[in-house]
């Protein structure tokens, strides 16, 4: 805490970041003494990474009394698309809604990684971010991914869905089965909500989607009844158990995905 006790050379205050603060637990008693009587000219920030601040220790209690405790929680999967859209808007980057969907699917909820990829896309200085640009500069196939698989399923484009599924099963490292099953489940879960929604003008809000994709659910609702959706969700639950080795014998990526599609189209 020697730096915190010094006076700044030029500015009125100095900022001191203590990274990986969770590794300083042996010094928490000493640090808590400073926190209870801090120097006004210093702003001290304790950064915890991949670990919660233990509310039982002295440092937490001292910080709560004399400062501010801020917890940045991970986003849920259904919040990532809005976060990416807002980030692109802040960067004043134009984008296609489909491109945002692909980014969210490929990068998941790792905001650090998403930010790095957005920086990469900004350097390109393209007029608009499209799926093709993502394929060229990030390396994710614009034609063979969960987003396109779900589109094919929704449209009952059988040939396309099997072709995408076979490609993804051959590239399982880039397309984990658990993510694919989760994505298809989310689709049918939303489609169920769409079926029972009386006021279709609220579709985007209730389903948590960009209005651009409402037409996809309009099409899918004609291909899958409420009962079809319920049956598909049951099939997905079984596929999930197979992927985890809980049931079934032939539990490889290809067999599970093809069996799932067979069930979806034959229920």
In short:
With 267 residues, this protein is mainly alpha-helical. It is built from 14 helices and 2 strands. Strands 1-2 form a two-stranded parallel sheet.
What features would you describe in this structure?
The protein has 14 helices and 2 strands. By secondary structure, the protein is mostly helical. The protein folds into 3 domains: 59 residues, no CATH class; 62 residues, Helicase, Ruva Protein, domain 3; 121 residues, Zinc Finger, Delta Prime, domain 3 (Up-down Bundle), CATH 1.20.272.10. A two-stranded parallel sheet has the order 1-2. The protein is elongated.
Largest beta-sheet details: 2 strands, parallel
Determine the number of helices (DSSP H or I, runs of at least 4 residues).
14
Structural class: mainly alpha
Distance between the termini: 67 Å
Helix content: 55-70%
Structurally, the number of domains stands at: 3
Give me the strand/helix succession.
Answer: HEHEHHHHHHHHHHHH
Beta-strand content estimate: under 5%
In spatial order, strands of the major sheet run 1-2
The number of E-state strands comes to 2
Shape: elongated
Determine the mean pLDDT.
Answer: 90
Measured on Cα atoms, how large is the radius of gyration?
24 Å
CATH fold group of the largest domain: Zinc Finger, Delta Prime, domain 3
What's the CATH first level of the largest domain?
Mainly Alpha
Low-confidence stretches: none
CATH architecture grouping of the largest domain: Up-down Bundle
């Amino acid at each position: 805490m020697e730096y915190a006790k010094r006076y700044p050379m030029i500015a009125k205050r100095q900022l001191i970041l203590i990274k990986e603060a969770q590794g300083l637990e042996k010094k928490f008693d000493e640090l808590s003494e400073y926190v209870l009587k801090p120097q006004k000219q210093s702003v001290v920030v304790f950064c915890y990474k991949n670990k919660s601040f233990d509310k039982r220790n002295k440092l937490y209690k001292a910080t709560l009394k004399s400062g501010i405790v801020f917890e940045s929680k991970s986003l849920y999967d259904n919040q990532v698309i809005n976060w990416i859209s807002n980030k692109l808007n802040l960067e004043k980057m134009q984008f296609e809604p489909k491109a945002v969907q692909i980014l969210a699917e490929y990068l998941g909820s790792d905001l650090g990684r998403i930010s790095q990829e957005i920086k990469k896309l900004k350097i390109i200085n393209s007029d608009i971010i499209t799926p093709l640009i993502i394929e060229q500069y990030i390396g994710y196939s614009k034609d063979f991914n969960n987003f396109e698989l779900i589109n094919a399923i929704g449209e009952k484009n059988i040939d396309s869905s099997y072709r995408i599924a076979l490609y993804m099963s051959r590239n399982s490292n880039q397309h984990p089965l658990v993510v694919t099953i989760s994505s298809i489940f989310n689709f049918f879960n939303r489609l169920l909500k769409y079926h029972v929604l009386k006021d279709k003008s609220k579709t985007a809000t209730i389903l948590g989607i960009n209005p651009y994709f409402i037409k996809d659910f309009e099409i899918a609702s004609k291909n899958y009844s409420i009962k079809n959706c319920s049956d598909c969700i049951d099939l997905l639950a079984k596929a999930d158990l197979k992927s985890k080795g809980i049931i079934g014998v032939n539990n490889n990526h290809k067999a599970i995905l093809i069996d799932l599609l067979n069930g979806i189209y034959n229920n």
